[in-house]
Amino acid sequence: xxxxxxxxxxxxxxxxxxxxxxxxxxxxxxxxxxxxxxxxxxxxxxxxxxxxxxxxxxxxxxxxxxxxxxxxxxxxxxxxxxxxxxxxxxxxxxxxxxxxxxxxxxxxxxxxxxxxxxxxxxxxxxxxxxxxxxxxxxxx
Length: 140
Description:
single chain; 3 helices
């Protein structure tokens, strides 16, 4: 009986020690997971800001080029002027679309940001294509 009682006591002590180690390991895992989440958020925020800054810069540059096209349109002939005006209206519409989407993107986060980023990139590509088309018409 003493033997069984001693064995039982030993098993209880071992179980307690095991539980204590497991608890400490669990706390370390929680801490590491928290650090990983923080690092991921920081990276995503950094990436978002970089994207927004880059697109803002490119949009400002393209706005200057669009202004130049508008100035050239003022000096073009009547026939060319009508065609160019249509292209400039399309450019302005697409530019406003990109600007609005970029503003919404700045206010978004997480999965919404990822989805919206794709929409902004698509609108940006449309704007660049429209600009290229309009710029080509001045070369002819």
